[in-house]
Write a structure and sequence with these properties.
48% helix; eight-stranded parallel β-sheet; eight-stranded mixed β-sheet; 581 residues; binds magnesium ion; alpha/beta; binds phosphoenolpyruvate
Length: 581
């Protein structure tokens, strides 16, 4: 048995036989060709480039139909590189002048580009280097005259193990047969991870080298919750995970019956239970799981997979699709929260030492007003006849909020002048995710229609702990009394002023914290779509009084460990059916 620790990239547990996707296709048969065969070699290169271009165009169309335009756009980047006349010229001259074989020219050139990307010290560009490897693979296969082995055409269930899967390979996986994916490289914010999540395929990435120790057909357990991969598990481990799978399946069957029931406490207090989404197609999961609406639409994901900024029409289509699908349920669209760990195409002023404290989120939008206005126009246009709300992220000062509202007003005026319709009463809200916003909330609250507490960032900024840094992960605790006091202050201030407040950080989707948050006075929680049923079940199991008792008790505690231990016991007591292991 071999246990590997990687990065949990897409939740869920899966057990299956290993299918190793190796790099055997990348084989260079020979490095040089004879002088008198160079023209033939150039022709061979052209033919391969044409074949790959056709193949990619077909893939782009197929993926666009299957998963939507953003995913199709992943191929646009590949196609653009492939069609770049500079690349073609460079390859031709390596063959003509240096007598490189077509394979060697392709491989050496694309790998050199990839290396430059990797060395640029930008996570976004480093991840884009995978697109170049993807292109290299495609061209080498084209030159070998071999049909691409379609991972899409699997005929039996498998756990895919690879050094790396490109986003395009991941987007084409056949959900019916792919139990899970594991890659040696990659990060949680890579396209591959995002696409896996979108397809609800459990995934662990960044395990480090291990493929040499696995054989095709080995039994592999993938624990996408803990980021663990177990190869050739012993009998006891296998039985334990099989039991977990079985329990999860039967719990899921039971939870599915809650879809049309309200998220209401046992004594009849209605909680608005909405979902957080990154991509428009996730609305299907929101509806299937019985969410009351979309509490947070992270629109910056629209930028991932695009090789240029989305147009107003692309923004508009995405927002309209979500609003239409949610059939009148409220949808909160958050304006761009790019930067820090979510890189996009907006220009940054060079590299930053502390990107989470740098030019991110609303700061970036206010620096790029033209792009910001494009998005605001699209949201306003999509609001006609829909239940949309607009929210600004990471507000730290009143000045920022006012500036953002000014840009919004300009966008409104432009639309008025153009005679374009929009919802003039669209509610405007802000994320409360900086301690500064909490401390000044009595002022902010007069200038917004609602607030949403972003506990992911509020925790990192309160405790000075980077939310993505493994080294300090043990210090990152939303249950720290300092964070809880800030949340409590927000809820009291908002309730006093009758301004609706919600929590949309990961904390709200954790069963452990739901009772506490409701007890503090929150009546709206926004969680990941897959978590909606569990949280609903918990809410239906408890009374408001129980939640209030929990909150009173917890707010006297001095330490996150004490809070967590107490809340764990409360869950075991009130909702034992959802406690695994
Ligand atoms: C948060 O910070 O809690 C939040 C919901 O925003 P994000 O996770 O996108 O930063
Ligand atoms: Mg945030």
């Amino acid at each position: 048995m071999q246990v590997l620790q990687g990065i949990a990239a897409s939740p869920g547990v899966a057990i299956g036989e290993a299918l190793i996707v190796g790099n055997e296709d990348i084989r260079i048969p020979r490095h040089f060709v004879m002088r008198d065969t160079v023209e033939r070699e150039v022709q061979r290169l052209h033919r391969a480039m044409n074949v790959v271009e056709d193949e990619m165009t077909r893939d782009r169309d197929a993926v666009t139909i299957k998963l939507g335009e953003q995913y199709g756009a992943i191929f646009a980047a590949h196609l653009q590189m492939l069609r770049d006349p500079k690349l073609r010229k460079e390859l031709e001259s390596l063959i003509r002048d240096r007598h490189y074989s077509a394979e060697y020219a392709v491989s050496s050139t694309l790998r050199r580009y990839a290396k430059v990307f990797q060395q640029l010290d930008s996570q976004y560009l480093a991840e884009r280097s995978h697109d170049l490897f993807d292109l290299e693979k495609g061209l080498l296969r084209g030159l070998a005259g071999r049909q691409r082995e379609h991972l899409m055409n699997l005929s039996s269930p498998a756990v895919i193990l690879a050094k790396n899967l490109t986003p395009s390979e991941t987007a084409k996986l056949d959900r019916q047969f792919v139990r899970a994916i594991v890659t040696e490289v990659g990060g949680a914010s890579s396209h591959t991870a995002i696409v896996a999540k979108g397809q609800e395929i459990p995934a662990v990435v960044g395990t480090g080298c291990f493929l040499a120790d696995v054989s095709g057909g080995d039994i592999v357990i993938v624990d996408g919750e803990q980021g663990k991969v177990i190869v050739r598990p012993d009998k006891e481990t296998l039985e334990r995970y099989q039991a977990t799978l079985e329990t999860q399946r039967s719990t899921a069957r039971h939870l599915a019956t809650l879809r049309d029931l309200p998220a209401e406490t046992a004594d009849g207090v209605r909680i608005q239970l909405t979902a957080n989404i990154e991509f428009p197609y996730e609305v299907e999961t929101c509806l299937a799981r019985g969410a009351d609406g979309v509490g947070l639409y992270r629109t910056e994901f629209l930028y991932l997979g695009m090789d240029c900024e989305p147009t107003e029409e692309q923004h508009f289509q995405a927002y309209s699709q979500v609003a239409r699908a949610m059939q009148g349920r409220p949808v909160t669209i958050r304006t761009l929260d790019l930067g820090a760990d979510k890189m996009g195409l907006l220009p940054k002023q060079g590299e930053e030492d502390n990107p989470f404290l740098g030019l991110r989120s609303i700061r970036l939008s206010l620096r790029n007003v033209a792009s910001f206005r494009v998005q605001l126009r699209a949201i306003l246009r999509a609001s006609v006849g829909r239940n949309l709300r607009l929210m600004f992220p990471m507000i730290a000062t009143l000045n920022e909020l006012r500036k953002a509202k000014m840009v919004l007003n300009d966008a409104r005026e432009d639309l008025e002048d153009e005679g374009v319709d929009f919802d003039r009463d669209i509610p405007i809200g802000m994320m409360v995710e900086t301690p500064a916003a909490v401390l000044m909330l009595d002022k902010f609250i007069r200038e917004v229609d609602f607030i949403s507490i972003g506990t992911n960032d509020l925790t990192q900024y309160t405790l000075a702990v980077d939310r993505g840094n493994r080294e300090v992960a043990d210090l990152y605790r939303p249950s720290d009394p300092a964070v809880l006091r800030l949340i409590d202050h927000c809820v009291r201030t908002a309730n006093q002023e009758n301004v609706p407040a919600s929590v949309c950080g990961e904390m709200s989707g954790s069963l452990k914290y739901a009772m506490l948050l409701i007890g503090m006075g929150l009546r709206s929680l926004s969680v990941s779509p897959a978590t909606v049923p569990e949280v609903k079940q918990l809410i239906r199991n408890v009374t408001l009084e129980q939640c209030q008792t929990v909150a009173r008790r917890v707010l006297t505690m001095e330490d996150a460990n004490e809070v967590d231990a107490f809340l764990r016991e409360e869950i075991k007591r009130t909702t034992p059916e959802l406690v695994f292991g």
